[in-house]
Write a structure and sequence with these properties.
7-stranded antiparallel sheet, 14 helices, 24% strand, disordered C terminus
Length: 691
């Protein structure tokens, strides 16, 4: 579509009761990002109240008809997905505005390939709109969904706001009340107390404003809001030397939610041999069939009882926001042999049913193509919307786990989706540890589910095996007999990508932050061709490389597995933009690394060709001048690295490769990355940008 064009959704597809809108972008460094917001407007073009302003602190709006689903990595950047249940949008809402904003002085001109795509409930793409001429703006309206004569239409807008999210929200009537003074004082008091208890707080990202307009910002406890702090509009401070700084102004956020404390209360048991009674016991599990049956029942029952959890797992598959019921061991006719899918999920909204069949595998068992094909055929005949597979495997872009035939003659389309057990664990962790759920009982249910899934007997451990090609490829690299084009190298590359995606899920769930793999590939490149190129590099160099981006960290965490030397290297490049003499900058870095391990390698990065000096932290603590360039070269940053022995086995046992990667990333983040995340000096409210 071109800017200003509009189209009726019903003319594009029959499955537009619920749609998925994705906003995407990329950047040359892979680090550029933006945050999505949605405004629900009435007939006057204004929000009815602040609850119609949907952003990270309020990710669900319109009685559940609009939900922000978060970011997913793409080949050249990231993509934000938003689920719209158009049949359930309140009747008073005439228009829904989809926008995104940047912060910290960033502008959309620094991002490439700004785009909006819209897909129907079957996952078929209907609309694509590329946004241009957004160089100097910090907020952009990508598009609008609006009603005309009882039908929904889409308009490609592409309008920019130099005043940022604050200006955009104000134009649409978001109430920016000055009602936070007493609340801010209370939160600052709570912040001091909770910091003594080791609680983590996140500062709202600053929102850019036009020059010459000093604004206020606020610090909000991440766990107190029950959601990730985000850009929220703030009102400008009063001019004049006598005017006191105003407290933070922001739209009202969602009500406080319940999260579980990280520390457990003192046990009442007589001794450590006593074990707490569990809602979902795992001690009696003996066979794969028992594991599959119980895991399916446990997960589906919690999905039905905890709305936030059920919605989180199904919204990305086109399910509406409504009353959910789940079933297990259902018998469905299929020729002479009835089929029994492991489960069925049904969601009812406005008298309409959305149905998905569920096929589950545990303990590393692979999905069977004939089973999945039979469920796809049954779903098509009965008018069901989706088939969901759930296993320890991780799906990759452009590489389906199961190949199924789609009968093009059928009018009804069925979508095939996949969930990894690692994704289920991640979503449970995010809800009960960071974002919160509706009440304490729901939090306890999720805690019991998490305990079950993480128990060694459950069989729900995520990706746990590098595959049959792992040992032959390692041997081929050792004896230099592995040739480019070997299919076994491609299998190792695919499993390495699965492992890295799982590392991101696990680390993100523990930290409560966005953790995404970075894929440095040409825009629009084919995922299969990219993996084939990486497989050739593996054959030539004997190394597996990956990068992950952790929200709030100063750089990208790089992971290198050298199959020739048997070593894992985790590293990060820290920019050095502070003023001062080179030796002073080196000393500041070493002071920040006071608790880092002595075997940490530090390399000075210099401007121009050639490498800078390097050394271990143990040697540099008494002699920091050893990594100051002797030729006077300009220091641009430092590379911090840790080395660890690589596991040789293909699995996740104590001596396995997967376990060694997990341990290396955890150690590096806890002992190095967490220490270099030094907070910026606190400025007065009148000096800070809008937050």
């Amino acid at each position: 579509m071109v800017k200003g064009a509009n189209v009726g959704l019903a003319a594009l597809s029959e499955d537009v009761g619920s749609v998925m809108v994705s906003l995407g972008w990329s950047s040359a460094t892979g680090e550029g990002d933006a945050d999505v917001s949605v405004l629900l407007l009435d007939g006057d073009g204004k929000v009815r109240s602040d609850v119609d302003f949907c952003f990270y602190n309020n990710p669900v709006a319109g009685n559940g008809s609009v939900q922000l689903l978060g970011k997913t990595p793409t080949a050249d950047g990231s993509e934000d997905r938003i689920s719209f249940d158009l049949d359930a949008v309140p009747e008073e809402i005439d228009k829904v505005v989809v926008a995104a904003s940047r912060y910290g002085g960033s502008r959309f001109g620094e991002l490439d390939d700004l785009r909006l795509t819209l897909a129907d409930s079957a996952g078929d793409g209907l609309v694509r709109f590329a946004v241009e001429e957004a160089d100097e703006v910090s907020a952009v309206i990508f598009g609008e969904l609006y009603r005309r004569s009882g039908e929904w239409k889409f308009r490609a807008v592409g309008q920019g706001y130099a005043s940022g999210l604050a200006g955009l929200a104000t134009d649409y009537g978001v109430d920016i009340d000055d009602d936070a003074a007493e609340e801010d004082a209370r939160e600052q008091g709570e912040q001091g107390h909770e910091q003594e208890q080791g609680q983590e707080y996140a500062e709202e990202a600053p929102l850019p404003e036009p020059a010459g307009q000093p604004t206020a910002s606020a610090r909000v406890p991440a766990q107190a809001t029950g959601a990730r702090p985000d850009d929220v509009p703030a009102a400008p401070a009063q001019d004049g030397p006598a005017a006191p700084a105003k407290p933070a102004r922001r739209p009202r956020t969602a009500k406080k939610k319940v999260t579980l404390p990280r520390t457990t209360r003192k046990s009442l048991a007589d001794n450590e041999s006593w074990r707490s009674a569990r809602l979902f016991p795992v001690s009696a599990l003996k066979s794969d069939r028992e594991r599959e049956t119980r895991a399916t029942s446990v997960v589906l029952s919690v999905m039905a009882q905890v709305p936030e959890f059920g919605r989180r797992l199904t919204a990305g598959f086109g399910a509406p926001a409504g009353r959910m019921e789940t079933f297990t061991e259902v018998t469905l006719p299929h020729g002479e042999s009835p089929r029994r899918p492991d489960g069925v999920v049904r969601v009812e909204r406005a008298g309409k049913l959305w149905t998905a069949l569920v096929e589950t595998k545990t303990n590393g068992n692979a999905l069977k193509p004939d089973q999945v094909q039979a469920y796809m055929d049954i779903a098509a005949r009965r008018g069901y919307e989706a088939v969901i597979t759930l296993s320890n495997d991780v799906a990759l872009d452009g590489s389906p786990l199961v190949d199924v035939r789609i009968d093009g003659r059928r009018k009804h389309k069925v979508a095939l989706w996949h969930l990894s057990w690692a994704e289920v664990v991640h979503q449970a962790q995010m809800l009960i540890r960071h974002e919160g759920v509706g009440n304490a009982a729901h939090a306890w249910l999720l805690q019991e589910l998490l305990h079950y899934l993480q128990h060694e007997n459950s069989g729900c451990h995520g990706f746990q095996n590098m595959g049959a090609a792992w040992v032959p490829v390692r041997r081929g690299i050792d004896d230099e007999t592995l040739c480019q084009g070997d299919a076994r190298a491609l299998e190792v590359i695919e499993n390495w990508e699965r492992l890295v995606r799982q590392v991101c899920l696990r680390l993100g769930g523990e930290l409560g932050q966005k953790v995404l793999p970075v894929q440095r590939a040409r825009r629009g490149s084919d995922p299969g061709a990219r993996r084939a190129e990486l497989a050739d590099h593996l054959c030539e160099q004997g190394r597996l490389n990956a990068e992950i981006r952790i929200e709030g960290t100063p750089g990208v965490l790089a992971i290198t597995a050298d199959l020739r030397t048997g070593k894992l290297r985790t590293s990060i490049e820290v920019p050095s933009a502070e003023p001062g003499y080179p030796l002073s900058r080196v000393k500041r870095l070493i002071r920040r690394l006071a608790e880092a391990p002595a075997d940490l390698h530090i390399e000075t990065l210099v401007d121009g060709p050639g490498a800078g000096p390097r050394g271990t932290l143990e040697r540099l603590r008494p002699e920091p001048a050893d990594i100051v360039p002797k030729d006077g070269a300009q220091i641009t940053g430092f590379r911090l690295s840790l080395f660890k022995g690589m596991g040789s086995g293909r699995g996740s046992a104590e001596t396995g490769f997967i376990r060694s990667v997990d341990e290396a990333v955890d150690r590096f983040h806890a002992q190095v990355v967490a220490q270099v995340e030094a907070p910026a000096p606190r400025r007065s409210r009148s000096e800070e940008p809008t937050g």
